[in-house]
Amino acid sequence: MAAPLAIPTIDITALLNNSSATTEKQHVAVELLNAFTTYGVFYITSPSHPLFTTQNTNKVLDASKRLFDLDTAQKAQIPKIQPGGFTRGYVPIGGESGSATKELKEGFSYGYEWPAEELKAKQANDSLNGLQGPNAWPVQASLDQLDQGHKDAFKSTLQEFYLHVCDIAKGLLKGISLALALPEDELSKYCTTSETISFMRLFHYLPYADQGHTAQIGSSAHTDWGFLTLILSPSKTVGLQLFHDNQWQDVPSHDNSLVINGGDYLSLLTGGKLISPLHRVVSNGQEERYSMCCFYYPDYHAKIPLLVQEEVRGQAASGNYSLLRDQRDEDAKHDDATSAAAKDGQDARSVATKLLNGDINFGDYIISKWTQVYRKGGAY
User: Fold this and answer.
1) I need a labelling partner for 312 at 20 to 30 A (CA). Which of 111, 119, 153, 250 fits?
2) pTM of the model
3) Which position has the higher pLDDT, 174 or 333?
4) What's the pLDDT at 284?
């Protein structure tokens, strides 16, 4: 039985308050560095931020439950995510997997809600990048049901939540910069339009009876490819696990907090100093689980130089990242065996090397990774 770890909870109020003293920010930065280098995952909270309240957490959880409680016909009307890297819409059961194992979850992806006129102008000028575009909401009849008599309440709740999480991510960037002995605004320079390409994923994990995890699982063991992942887990059901000290250990939910973990790109930029943790989601076989995960990215065209000038260590030296793995299923690998990309040697490791060398930008690379985990034929 996996045992809970003593994962720290860090109050990041000083990073969210522009009037905070430098010494206060530095204190938080030290805590962040210790957590990143020990576990790669930790909790954050702030009594001054509106997100960290039971009322707001319950609003988001209730909205998510209502969405996944829609009947099969209503879910079938929600646009499904498509291959190509731009992930908006419904993720059916079996529609994604980072391995050969079927993942027993359904999801819904959304992000920045563009003002209608601005979106129309950008589409007309063809000025949206590959990670920007409109959200794929349920049809109006379903939205009316989800609103429960309050016009636009469902979308407003999810948008408010998304923008709050992006605001918190911006504060974390300051602390991470300071933790790496860099100017406070160093990472922020590469994240000027992050909220327009980052996105939120609502997940509903289904219970399953197979405790061997050989054929099905909530989410396959993986590291996150990107920069920062911010997770709200209001369900008290145990599910998220971290691989630490050569065993799987539980990461339980805490009230009024977010779970934070670093991504592969951030870890590689620090030569492995900051850990991108291997994690998974499992089921006790009886209970459903809900979580909300924000994947916070640097700008699409970002080419971030190495952030530390130290010897490559640990995870970076071993290359133990999902970012460096080919996560396509066997059919996709067979279909692409003679493609131009394959002939050019565009395997995961060579493309990652180009990313770190500044030969390609972040957006183009992350699109290629999302394409790898798309699964044809995911069923409702």
Assistant:
1) 250
2) 0.89
3) 174
4) 73
